[in-house]
Amino acid sequence: MIIQDRMEIVEHKQIARAIFELTLRGKLTGEITSPGQFVHVRVSDSFDPLLRRPISIAKVDRDKQEITLLYRADGHGTGVLSKRITGDTVDVLGPLGNGFPIEATEAGETAYLIGGGIGVPPLYELSRQLTAKGVKCVHILGFESEDVVFYQEQFAALGDTHIATVDGTEGTKGFVTHVMDKLPTDFATFYTCGPMPMLKAVQQAYADKKGYVSFEERMGCGIGACFACVCETKDQSERSYVKICSDGPVFEAGVVSI
Amino acid sequence: MIIQDRMEIVEHKQIARAIFELTLRGKLTGEITSPGQFVHVRVSDSFDPLLRRPISIAKVDRDKQEITLLYRADGHGTGVLSKRITGDTVDVLGPLGNGFPIEATEAGETAYLIGGGIGVPPLYELSRQLTAKGVKCVHILGFESEDVVFYQEQFAALGDTHIATVDGTEGTKGFVTHVMDKLPTDFATFYTCGPMPMLKAVQQAYADKKGYVSFEERMGCGIGACFACVCETKDQSERSYVKICSDGPVFEAGVVSI
Amino acid sequence: MSRLAMELPGLQLKNPIMPASGCFGFGKEFGGLYDLSQLGAIMIKATTEETRYGNPTPRVAETASGMLNAIGLQNPGLEKVMAEELPWLERYDVPIIANVAGSETADYVAVAKAISTAPNVHALELNISCPNVKCGGIQFGTDPDTARELTAAVKEVSSVPVYVKLSPNVTSIVDMAKAVEAGGADGITMINTLIGMRLDAKTGRPIIANRTGGLSGPAVKPVAIRMVAEVSQATNLPIIGMGGVTNAQDVVDFLSVGASAVAVGTANFVDPFVCPNIINSLEEKLDELGVDHISELIGRSHRL
Amino acid sequence: MSRLAMELPGLQLKNPIMPASGCFGFGKEFGGLYDLSQLGAIMIKATTEETRYGNPTPRVAETASGMLNAIGLQNPGLEKVMAEELPWLERYDVPIIANVAGSETADYVAVAKAISTAPNVHALELNISCPNVKCGGIQFGTDPDTARELTAAVKEVSSVPVYVKLSPNVTSIVDMAKAVEAGGADGITMINTLIGMRLDAKTGRPIIANRTGGLSGPAVKPVAIRMVAEVSQATNLPIIGMGGVTNAQDVVDFLSVGASAVAVGTANFVDPFVCPNIINSLEEKLDELGVDHISELIGRSHRL
Ligand SMILES: Cc1cc2nc3c(=O)[nH]c(=O)nc-3n(C[C@H](O)[C@H](O)[C@H](O)COP(=O)(O)OP(=O)(O)OC[C@H]3O[C@@H](n4cnc5c(N)ncnc54)[C@H](O)[C@@H]3O)c2cc1C
Ligand SMILES: Cc1cc2nc3c(=O)[nH]c(=O)nc-3n(C[C@H](O)[C@H](O)[C@H](O)COP(=O)(O)OP(=O)(O)OC[C@H]3O[C@@H](n4cnc5c(N)ncnc54)[C@H](O)[C@@H]3O)c2cc1C
Ligand SMILES: Cc1cc2nc3c(=O)[nH]c(=O)nc-3n(C[C@H](O)[C@H](O)[C@H](O)COP(=O)(O)O)c2cc1C
Ligand SMILES: Cc1cc2nc3c(=O)[nH]c(=O)nc-3n(C[C@H](O)[C@H](O)[C@H](O)COP(=O)(O)O)c2cc1C
Ligand code: FES
Ligand code: FES
């Protein structure tokens, strides 16, 4: 169930250039059903900024009632959020949306988890759950440059992890597709989240594979009521659409027209 | 000179119901020329609230480069200010306006300092400077009720201090005028700051005395440029006016029409 | 009678608080969060004769204390609203105000005629003020004569009272209000959004794909309050006020300048529980103000 | 030529940044804070023929990301402005734009004729849009014909180019812009304030003694940007844009939708050093955007 929770900031630290790791404690944690769901965060109680910010749930710790968010503070709202300190509480709405289906991959099979930039965070909890189930996870993570790479050790602890940076300052120079080109295609499923051009390229490269794609769109409500975040579906029979916030953000590859 | 200073919060604590004591450190301190001047505080860096808040300088410590503000957090902006914590910095513009003339009272003479509610703060620095000079200060301070009384010990340490509360929960029941009625009128000068009805009553009661009155008005710029804070002067010859922020906030009794 | 109950043409309101059209869908999402029977009424999303897909995305952009939207009247169309959305809402004990949109008089009339017969639709809200569609009624919202005629045409076919929703993007909102009063309107709802634009700092292009969008939220409240004050003194129609309402004090403000009820739009996105929260805090607010019944607040600022 | 220099009718601007009328007095107070010669120009406070005392206080009220004001054109009158304020400003190397206000054509003409002869007045800004005075020109600001005629009358007597300041409180700002263009205006400044009202929570009365006031600040920026975008595409006049400017990005936004220069109003109250701060950060902004000269930004959002 979606609840509004005033979650306590347990830890908040910068882990790469403009990238923050925020750990929140609260009962919302108990409502999370799948990796790839997100929360809608009110970064301050003022009217400026007014709207909530959608942020993926990067890690869930049910025992401690804690969730971890990884976010880039480059805009107004995330900038304000980055200044909130331990002990403070934050108004969080969630969990929202439908996440990645871990049941789509069997134990023993291999899954490719392909993320770009701030699309990487939800893949971490996904990988934790898939590996726990016995799925072999291969992570292909793209970033701008070495100074904004984050969580590579955490991913490496769960499975093979390939980094690509646009400027070549870490890992393969170029995009995740450059890494993908060199990897075998004998995997069962792919899961991906990142900027639209990346999603497009991944979907194209693995057109014959079962895959799941997480989308982003500017949001109003985050709960399916305002129709801000609609995307057309590929099935154009009667111009049908989905709402990223409540029907997604994760869809089976090929459903949403990109 | 008026400067804009990012002052550091050295101490910030609640001292009575909704009344806060805020100690700030910065070079603005060195620019202060008289008690009764005020600062214009930007309570947060967001656009909500947008405008600065005028707050009197209640105490100046030149050696430490510190000023103390005493304010009531009952509105939006002062509410936000009250949540700022030690170590943070606050954008302060000042010192603004012209304060109380301490030279108007000679050493050995008696001055009555009459304050009401959040008009009390500037009288504290005034009393410190007057007593330091050898003036005998009598403080007559009015509040709503006992739980919002503040700084009575500090004032008592400087001179006779009479408290009036509207509901009689501390000191004399009623207004400062009830206290004034019972005090001798053999003083040299009065200095007053508080709500308009109080200023009126004080000015009337001591019409034949030399006195100085500090006014409040809603402000835009705080520096004399926007004409938000004008008051008519008593001299109605050609509808002349003063600006509370830059001509005041302190005027000789009788100058401003109230 | 409860201290919050209010009666308006066609509407017996438990309290004068209702979600604004377009900010609450057809209620389903919020129905998952709280019991919609608590609400005074529900203004459902604009309904047009045919299905509309709406504008390309992005459809929203944040601004200082506000937001822009250009959804473009996306809705499943009259038939589906009648067959699915309205019947679903019948499970709640709450009157529905149906927001009616169109491109020309005939559309408006067709939707109004049909939708006003739904059992839970107790009033219509004629949307002559949506700024986000090329042929979406904005011409009806800025010209008094056109507005009067449309109001009269819709009144003729509607089985329930008709409220007309006014646009703030006009030189004289009083002229518009008087025109719809002359056309037979039973009430006025106001304000719709102010037309605005925001550029993307990175690209230099408007963020909203439609280029312009409608400005709503706390930023517009002063304009809304001023306009309600003007209209309430110039007409005899009851007003449902809106524009930047986020808390009980805002409700008091809108009633004080002459509104009889208040709608909450954008604030539902900031806090999905805002409507029940406001409703629950209203009685305390009345106590603070020393007022027995909320209706005593209506127009008090004009009398002060 | 400097990367920031801009030429407009009558104005050789070192940079396209200037304080907006009414938010900078006649410069004296800010002159105590920084060297005014840094500014592109100065728009001085509205000047009327006779001395005006203005409205009763309170004259300002804060709103979400904005403020209301109803100063009421308080100013020392033409004679004193000519004899004291303008000569004082001559010590600075900065062109002055004189904001001209009045109640009827004759006033405007008298002020325009005289003030345009002052050596440092390089342009007039015809204030036909002040919402805060009973007879203060608002009628000129909402009717295209009246605006055209007034513009023509002032043009006839003015020794310097005439910019007309448009009100946003109209159904079609494009109609107003075209009217003043037809009247011979050399440029447009926009926007003046949106009319708004705020109540005092404690008393229920409007905070501003004049009841309504003009809304300015970041809250109105989306409306201003939209209107500048419309007008710049509908007329050939250069535009000095304003409404909610607080930083270099806002300047880029106004230029991108077609303004040739930008005025800063309310932000001077929030940060008295805002104008020099913006000016000092503009070159870095140009580098970020990969633009050689600031004029390349003008209208780029229309071309994208
Ligand atoms: C389902 C979902 C999950 C996301 N997960 C993460 C995450 O885990 N980590 C992370 O760093 N970012 C994530 N994002 C992107 C993140 O929401 C935006 O970067 C953020 O909202 C930008 O806000 P700002 O305050 O930095 O920028 P501003 O420029 O102040 O934002 C202004 C407005 O635009 C919206 N907006 C701006 N960029 C985006 C965007 N890319 N997507 C959606 N809305 C946007 C904001 O929400 C806000 O309403 C996610 C987005 C979605 C939709
Ligand atoms: C020269 C001067 C000195 C002052 N010194 C003190 C002091 O030492 N301690 C203290 O507690 N208060 C002082 N005040 C009053 C203080 O400025 C207001 O209480 C405060 O601005 C209210 O802001 P808010 O955020 O609480 O209320 P809000 O309701 O959020 O204020 C909204 C707007 O109204 C203005 N405003 C509201 N009330 C007043 C008021 N009484 N006077 C001026 N502007 C007002 C605010 O500045 C703001 O622009 C002083 C005022 C002036 C003019
Ligand atoms: C996302 C969104 C969609 C809207 N859709 C409609 C609509 O379909 N019909 C309508 O009459 N008004 C619509 N509005 C306007 C609101 O009903 C309301 O008039 C306006 O937003 C002002 O109120 P607020 O400031 O509380 O949001 C919409 C507003 C928003 C923010
Ligand atoms: C306190 C105040 C006084 C103003 N006085 C005038 C004036 O005398 N003449 C005028 O043309 N505009 C006046 N304006 C309007 C501004 O020049 C400007 O058009 C408006 O405030 C929008 O810009 P901003 O959002 O940057 O403030 C005034 C605005 C404020 C806030
Ligand atoms: S954000 Fe409102 S429907 Fe998706
Ligand atoms: S507050 Fe601007 S002149 Fe006093």
Features:
heterotetramer, A: 258 residues, alpha/beta, Elongation Factor Tu (Ef-tu), domain 3, Rossmann fold, 2 domains, seven-stranded antiparallel sheet, 5 helices, 16% helix, C: 304 residues, 14 strands, globular, binds flavin mononucleotide, binds FE2/S2 (inorganic) cluster
Major sheet: arrangement of strands of chain C: 3-14-13-10-9-8-7-4
Distance between the termini of chain A: 30 Å
Strand percentage of chain C: 15-25%
Q: Average pLDDT value of chain A?
A: 95
Low-confidence stretches of chain A: none
Name of the top-level CATH class of the largest domain in chain A = Alpha Beta
- Percent in helix of chain C: 25-40%
**What does the oligomeric state look like here?**
heterotetramer
Tell me the radius of gyration of chain A.
18 Å
Hetero groups: flavin-adenine dinucleotide, flavin mononucleotide, FE2/S2 (inorganic) cluster
- What is the topology, as strand order, of the major beta sheet of chain A? 4-3-7-1-2-6-5
Largest interface: pair, residues per side:
C-D, 43 and 43 residues
Major sheet of chain A, described briefly?
A: 7 strands, antiparallel
Order of helices and strands of chain A: EEEEEEHEEHEHEEHEHEEEE
Number of strands of chain A: 16
| Number of separate helices of chain A | 5
Structural class of chain A: alpha/beta
Uncertain ranges of chain C? none
Beginning-to-end CA distance, first to last residue of chain C: 27 Å
